[in-house]
Amino acid sequence: MSCEIEKTESRRFGTLYRIKHPSGLTILLSPMEGFKSSYALFGTAYGSVDTLIKTDRDGDFVKLPEGIAHYLEHKLFESEECSAFERYAKTGASANAFTAFDRTAYLFSCSDNFAESLEILLDFVTHPYFTAETVAKEQGIIGQEIRMYDDSADWRVLFNLLCALYSKNPVRIDIAGTQESISHITAELLYKCYDKFYNLHNMVLAVAGNVDVDEVIAVADKILKPAEPFFVERGSCDEPENVVQSYVEQHLPVSVPMFDIGFKGRAGTERENFIGSVNADTDVEKSWKDFVRQRKDEDLKEIIDSEHLKPQETRTFMDNSFRDGQVRTTGTDIDKILPPMSRFGGGNRQEKKRTVIEKIQSFFERYFGL
Are 38 and 209 in contact (CB under 8 A)? Predict the structure, then answer.
């Protein structure tokens, strides 16, 4: 399979590679000369705050149990034959995983057998195995973990702060969920969340150290299969600007008192965020143009990736649109940016075209004149 490869030279890190694999996965590589160890992290943009979602198959937003992202992280290490940790024991790699508010990641480090360990990583993360029995058993294990964190002073001071700041935002809920919320997690729900978020278009593989670019690509070619298009809309909550309470105190056995301070404000607009980055030494006009150009490139790339559009044709189409002052949705130019699809596919092709037009029209209106 052929890959799109971008190379960047860094004075500190040498040559850095950004690879778009045909499966849909983005691979970031940093070969580091003279290093003996190798490191790999395979992550998805799915974390504990993703509890209200909608896909193109859902009529409305779906509410997920709090803690399900963390639960899924635990269960992915298991398979019908053996656990991923047992497989890593044969290669000598040290493996771990974590769930954060906005991401879940699986990682390992090793000084030998890197290709074999990378195969294990890509294989177990892309092949889920859940049963009603194993899911029920895990509830006790995670319940114990939740109780353990209830006795962790640094963890409690953080979440006491978040609960004091936010009344509705899911960031206030422990990443592992609650005893009550995890009781609603089933094998069926885990598969549903996995199918939604563990899509290779929503994931990244980062590799650094004593690694070879061709070897990494070869392993990805061997293990990964092309993913379906990815679309998930994350629901938002109507979070008030005021805090829930101004002070929280909890007593736990610590040698030195601990505290966190937080400030809550509304999210700034892009212009306000830019203004916040300006100081007396800033060339404002140049910095604003650079800021807009960067955001514009990032937003267009997101549309290209999510809709699998032809990159160069799409950029040319948008350049012409900004030049002409309008998005031309008739004629053949719009068809040239679409991914290969059967012209006899009926509604699917027309639906795809309509979705693409809506996104690029919104993109045009956002940046035209800036």
Answer: yes
Q: Is the torsion defined by CA of 8, 11, 15, 16 positive or negative?
A: negative
Q: How far are the Cα atoms of 157, 260, 316 from residue 153, in angstroms, in the given order? A: 6, 11, 55
Confidence of residue 125 (pLDDT cuts 50, 70, 90): very high
Q: What gap in Å lies between CA 148 and CA 68, rounded to an integer? A: 18
The Cα 47–Cα 360 span in angstroms is: 28
Lowest model confidence (mean pLDDT) among 51-65, 86-100, 303-317: 51-65
At residue 176, what are phi and psi to the nearest 5 degrees? -80, -5
**Pairing of β 52-55 and β 62-63:** antiparallel
Instruction: Please state the pTM of the whole predicted model.
Output: 0.73
Q: Are 52 and 61 in contact (CB under 8 A)?
A: yes
**DSSP classification of residue 126:** T
Annotation says 81 is catalytic: no
Sign of CA dihedral 33, 39, 45, 47: negative
Q: Decide: helix, strand or coil at residue 179.
A: helix
Distance, in Å, from the CA atom of 317 to the CA atom of 322, rounded to the nearest integer, reads 9
Locate 105 and state its tokens.
């990641």
| pLDDT (tens digit per residue) in 43-80 | 999 999 999 988 777 778 889 999 999 999 999 999 98
Q: For 11, what's the count of Cα atoms within 13 Å in the CB-facing half-sphere? A: 0
Close Cβ partners of 221 (under 8 Å, ≥ 6 residues apart) = 1, 21
Cα(66)–Cα(49) distance, integer angstroms: 8
Q: Which contiguous run of DSSP H or E holds residue 204?
A: strand 203-209
Strand, helix or coil at 41?
Answer: strand
Q: Which helix (H) or strand (E) holds 322?
A: helix 311-324
* Active-site choice (73, 78, 138, 307): 73
Output the CA torsion 150→152→158→161 (10° steps).
50
Per DSSP, the three-state class of 110 is strand
Q: Do 67 and 208 form a contact (C-beta atoms < 8 A)?
A: no
Residue whose token pair is 């199918």: 195
- Which of the 8 DSSP states describes residue 81? S
Q: Report yes or no: 48 and 70 within 8 Å, Cβ to Cβ.
A: yes
